[in-house]
């Protein structure tokens, strides 16, 4: 082995060793940053049952939320109208939310409408699905 190959192998080996040593430290720091970010944003992550395809409702911490799953995309939202606080109704054949008091709707097919439901952030990890609620 010539000198150039030796130093090249040494540098590669040291780089790999550095990655192995620093990886757990960096992952721990990233978790701390995520928690700090959640605190600053004023949100807490609450586990929810894995939603099935289409629409479903779940009671989470005494609050009714709606979940709409379309393939890999999942959307979570408050079941109350943001304007009048009336309970939103799900119209299955149109796949839309409707407020009977305001007479406004939001279509999940077109992703538009006069009704603007309060959507929550949602994430999936190895433990399941989590929804971010404001504190």
Radius of gyration: 23 Å
Distance between the termini: 62 Å
Q: Care to count the β-strands?
A: 10
The CATH superfamily of the largest domain is known as Rieske [2Fe-2S] iron-sulphur domain
Order of helices and strands: HEEEEEEEEEE
The number of helical runs is 1
Oligomerization category of the chains in this entry: single chain
Instruction: Specify the CATH architecture of the largest domain.
Output: 3-layer Sandwich
- What structural category characterises the helix and strand content? alpha+beta
Query: In the CATH hierarchy, what is the class of the largest domain?
Result: Mainly Beta
Largest beta-sheet details: 4 strands, antiparallel
Q: What is the spatial order of strands in the main beta sheet?
A: 2-3-4-8
Q: Compute the average pLDDT.
A: 82
CATH topology of the largest domain: Rieske Iron-sulfur Protein
What is the percent of helical residues?
25-40%
3D shape: elongated
In terms of per-residue confidence, which ranges show pLDDT below 50 for 5 or more consecutive residues? Answer: none
Number of separate structural domains: 2
Percent strand: 35-45%
Organism: Sporolactobacillus spathodeae
Protein name: Rieske domain-containing protein
